[in-house]
Design goal:
Layout lengths: L25 H21 L6 H10 L2 H16 L3 H22 L2 H12 L8 H17 L5 H31 L2 E3 L10 H13 L6 E3 L11
Antiparallel strand pairs: 1-2
Helix pairs in contact: 1-2, 1-3, 1-4, 4-7, 5-6
């Protein structure tokens, strides 16, 4: 079911080949990616050998490659060139991804292995890079709630699920609001200081909106509005 996402793209920099991906591919790929990731984590937990940096921390770091490829491509699209279909997928899949992430970061058996390696870190002879990975892995799980009680972890999972749904909804609403309310400027003089290419783009955008001769500037998050 992972299809195109089963391996890295052979294009430069592993850039996605969108001619081989359709919107219908994403849900099956997400679900299969999560299933593979869960199986990889179960293998780490089930290892009868004592926890080590390699069989626990490195193995965990390398897990989820398929899911990572699907997520990277999908969320770049929804953030830059989305469609109603992609938005619907986002609404459906985001809570599932959050639940999947919680099933890993809040897994007490997995954390027990990570914690064992972390507590023995002074004796492992790790270099700076490996030490950083170990500390990040441990701290990420702690910050997610790994040290909480069973009841508290369930509360965190419920909060995370609600936040995921609300964040997705808010992001879509904010994006649509900004896209639907561009700034319309009547004269070129009002755009003094902008580059010619930016002004030309604004003129073209206004023409697309049915206001030829004017200039339109799409709104963005105000802390990221380049033209300010």
């Amino acid at each position: 079911a992972t299809g195109y996402f089963a391996s890295d793209s052979d294009l430069p920099f592993h850039a996605p080949d969108f001619t081989k991906i359709s919107e219908a591919d994403y849900i099956p790929a997400f679900e299969q990616g999560m299933a593979i990731h869960s199986a990889e984590v179960r293998t780490i937990i089930a290892n009868s050998d004592a926890p080590t940096f390699e069989n626990t921390i490195v193995a965990l770091e390398k897990s989820g490659a398929v899911l990572g490829r699907v997520s990277s491509i999908f969320f770049q699209l929804t953030g830059t060139n989305t469609t109603d279909g992609l938005d619907a997928i986002n609404t459906e899949i985001s809570p599932k991804l959050t639940s999947h992430g919680d099933s890993i970061t809040l897994n007490p058996d997995l954390f027990a292995r990570v914690k064992a390696v972390y507590e023995n870190r002074a004796n492992l002879g790790l270099d700076v890079e490996d030490t950083k990975l170990l500390e990040r892995t441990y701290n990420t799980m702690v910050h997610a709630g790994a040290l909480l009680t069973d009841e508290q972890r369930e509360q965190v999972k419920a909060i995370n699920s609600k936040l995921s749904t609300m964040t997705t909804e808010f992001g879509q609403m904010a994006r649509d609001a900004m896209a639907d309310q561009p700034l319309i400027v009547d004269t070129r003089e009002e755009l003094a200081g902008m580059s010619d290419s930016d002004i030309q783009a604004a003129a073209k955008f206004a023409e697309e909106l049915g206001q030829p001769g004017k200039f339109a500037i799409a709104l963005q998050n105000t802390t990221q509005q380049p033209l300010i």
